[in-house]
Amino acid sequence: MSIALDQVTKRYQDQPVVNDVSIEVGEGEFFVLLGPSGSGKSTLLRAIAGLTGIDHGRISLHGRDVTHVRARDRGVGLVFQNYALFRHMTVADNIEFALRVRRMKAAERRARRKELLQLVALEGMDERLPGQLSGGQQQRVAVARALAHKPQVLLLDEPFGALDAKIREELRRTIRAVQRELGITTVLVTHDQEEAFALADTIGVMNHGRLLEVGNPNDLYTQPATRFVATFLGAANLLLARQSVDGIRFGATPLSAEGAEPLQGGREHEVVAVLRPEEVEVGTAREDLSSDFIARGAVEEIVFTGALERLRVRLLDEPSAAQLLGAGSASGDPLIEITRTQPQRRELPLLAGAQVALGARRLHVLPTPISSFLACAPTEAEAAEIAREPLLESLSTRMKTRVSLRAIDGLAGTPAPFAGVAAITAGSQASETVEWLMRHGAGEVLVLPKNAPSPARVFIHWTDEAVRRATLAVSASLLRHVSAEAVYLGIVPEGDATGRGTPMRKLLDARSEAQQSHGLEMRTELAIGETVTEITRNLSTGSSQMLVLGITDITQAGTAYRTLLAAQPGWPVLIVYRSKDWGPGRQAARSAPEIAA
Amino acid sequence: MKNAGRREPNVIPGFGITLGFTTFFLCAIVLLPLSALVLKAAGMDFARFMDVITSPRAIASYKLSFGASMVAAGVNMVFGFAIAWSLVRYDFPGRKFVDAIIDMPFALPTAVSGIALTTVFAGNGWIGQYLEPLGIQVAYNWIGITVALTLIGMPFVVRTVQPALAEVQRDLEDAAETLGAGRFYVFRRIIVPTVLPALLTGFTLAFARAVGEYGSVIFIAGNMPMKTEITPLLIVIRLEEFDYAGAAALGCVMLAISFVMLLAINLLQVWGRKRMMVSR
């Protein structure tokens, strides 16, 4: 491996800005770190360069551990967004800077400089000052300067940010060509997905300090695993669908979709499906569609952009129609985004206001276990209050999902099945409510104390190995949307005679499964003692902590964890319940509701 | 050629008015008094003029005035840079307070600072009593004069270097570091050249101020003719003797020397700025 990052964490004022990131970049690979501003990507790049120290983890370059090596001894070349050229030096002096530092002979320096200037197509510019060059030329000089000392790794921090579109594209080609010619391992940081697609062999998407997904551009675009990647890499319509034995469906009609895990005897549940704007088929009537029908709608807006036409269509509220998650529009109802090519447009010219039928040529189901939230309280007004809780509000916004309301007065009767994660308030009643909700089909319940802040640390614990996978999946989904550290808490009863080997192995197993199956990097801690006491003690060690708890026995919520849920002021607790009956092989599916129990 | 002679409309209106004011104030406040000075000096015949300005006492005072000002401005360049550096680069408790204190010499009546310095550095003063046994006499000495001039000029250097340092992008240092440069190398080859124009400006201002300084120096100088007598003091002495022409002649010499030195520094700066291409 050319660059290997192992669980790299960087904190600023106790807030992790880079959170347990592990990356491996192969020899000669062009790796693009993509993410919105503030996602920690630039900090990570600076950490690789050695300009920023890290609080945890290891960095190695070409097999050499450089975690504690100074920047100037790491042998990397770094290119900055604002060029960072030495303005009082000529182009020649700028390029030769690294060689002068290394006391190279003048003749050799000159030869190397000529070579580099030719590489970046700036021959004859030697004696110019940076101020006399255009932005694009300055950045070429910066690239040449960064390559002068033959670094093993080239790092580029938003190198095209300050340039206009045309020059950007030209420089992009130059950099790609230079990188290919030299075969140098390269990491580029950008917030521009188009740039990432154009340059990358591999893209790593970051958000809130975490590395969410790594893959080649095509895979990430067509089969994203997370909501964030789906919506950040290109436009995406997110639809709530139901997954049942016969497949995915919005209303009554099942349709084909990729990525959906087959149900194994479980009851149907809610999933999130990604529909790319270019995969939406537009027809005048349902019968005209060659693909699966999803909804009917009215055209709200048509924007002509040259090669493509962008449509925004309001879905008509029909029971059989797809439910759109609020992507894009902050005000009012979400609109579905569609792009059509010119030939498609000619086939069916449309004007604003036209009624159309929409079909999905290709749907991709996200493997995310948290589809939506359902605020539950005795009355609808109280449920609305829960929905306004800062933590729930920020989670639903970040997950681009909705919070529905449900009145559950008296915990009586047989309610309609619960979809998504149920959210309730903490307190003395909480454990009964959790138990009741789970008996009636809720798989996850989020117990919220009043005004709980967004967590800085999330503890993860499960009572039985049978819920390990589900708990990890839910934890991973949660942690992708908050910038918190994940800590798996393993607890061994006091005086356990089986020795310390087994729990240690469990810890390591949990960590590697979290990493491999869920892309979740977590720390592990081992505590000895009584479970609830140990959890409470760990939660009390700092402010803004949260717990994800996996259980297999519904009554546990009401008994063992009663004190935990009733504690004042308390912590947010996300309880994941999977019945033990389904066994480890069937963890993907929800258990059947135990209404009879 | 319809538009011939018409200026492009400017964002800020009133070019005529502002230029008028500029010229008026330059004339009334700067040029007129200076011309009067030269005229007054021209009133005496050339032999006497030369006599006055080349008298040993006058020559000694020039040496002291310009020499001490040079040394003070030089000291300020070094320590002013250090102060500006710590204010820009580090965040420490009381930084705001230190930042505010820098401007004190601007606001203090110079006589006050002169008296204060004398009290501290005189043979029986707070610091003077410890320096005296070591054979270092500060007050009533050229060292004292330099100390006073340093105090007076310090804010000029700090205030001109501060914004320039703040503008040195961290990226430049980071870039140099990834290219293999050590800290001292970065300082010498990147930071100093980048802030050099500002440093020179600060030096110029501190020097100009020191040359003209009177109030603070006369208290600490001792004012012994040929030894610790600065030119401005000599001018005042001439005035008290009602030798207006003599005072004017000395004034003219100071004016001429200052002008030549400031011009030289300014030219140096223009040259430096051209090299830097500060305009982006």
Topology (SSEs and partners):
The complex is a heterodimer of chains A (597) and B (280).
Chain A: E1 3-12, E2 15-25, E3 30-34, H1 41-49, E4 56-61, E5 64-65, E6 76-79, H2 91-101, H3 106-119, H4 135-147, E7 153-157, H5 165-182, E8 185-190, H6 193-199, E9 202-207, E10 210-215, H7 217-222, H8 227-232, E11 237-244, E12 247-249, E13 254-255, E14 269-275, E15 280-283, E16 292-304, E17 308-315, E18 323-324, E19 336-341, H9 342-347, E20 355-360, E21 364-365, E22 373-377, H10 380-387, H11 390-398, E23 403-407, E24 421-425, H12 430-439, E25 444-448, E26 457-462, H13 468-479, E27 485-492, H14 501-518, E28 523-528, H15 531-539, E29 545-551, H16 554-558, H17 562-566, E30 573-577
Parallel strand pairs in A: 3-8, 3-9, 6-7, 7-8, 22-23, 22-24, 24-25, 26-27, 26-29, 27-28, 29-30
Antiparallel strand pairs in A: 1-2, 1-4, 4-5, 9-10, 11-12, 11-14, 11-18, 12-13, 14-21, 15-20, 16-17, 16-20, 17-19, 25-30
Helix pairs in contact in A: 2-3, 2-4, 3-4, 4-5, 13-14
Chain B: H1 15-42, H2 46-53, H3 56-89, H4 95-101, H5 104-107, H6 110-121, H7 128-131, H8 142-167, H9 170-178, H10 183-212, H11 215-221, H12 231-240, H13 244-276
Short description:
The complex is a heterodimer of chains A (597) and B (280). Chain A is of the alpha/beta class.
CATH class placement of the largest domain in chain B: Mainly Alpha
How many DSSP E strands of chain A?
A: 30
Derived structural class of chain A: alpha/beta
Spatial ordering of strands, largest sheet of chain A: 23-22-24-25-30-29-26-27-28
Q: Low-confidence parts of chain B, pLDDT < 50 over ≥5 residues? A: 1-5
CATH topology of the largest domain in chain B: MetI-like fold
Radius of gyration of chain B, Cα only, in angstroms? 23 Å
End-to-end span of chain A in angstroms? Answer: 54 Å
Percent range for β-strand residues of chain A: 25-35%
Largest sheet composition of chain A: 9 strands, mixed
Average pLDDT for all residues of chain B: 85
What is the tally of beta strands of chain B? 0
Task: Give the strand content of chain B.
Answer: under 5%
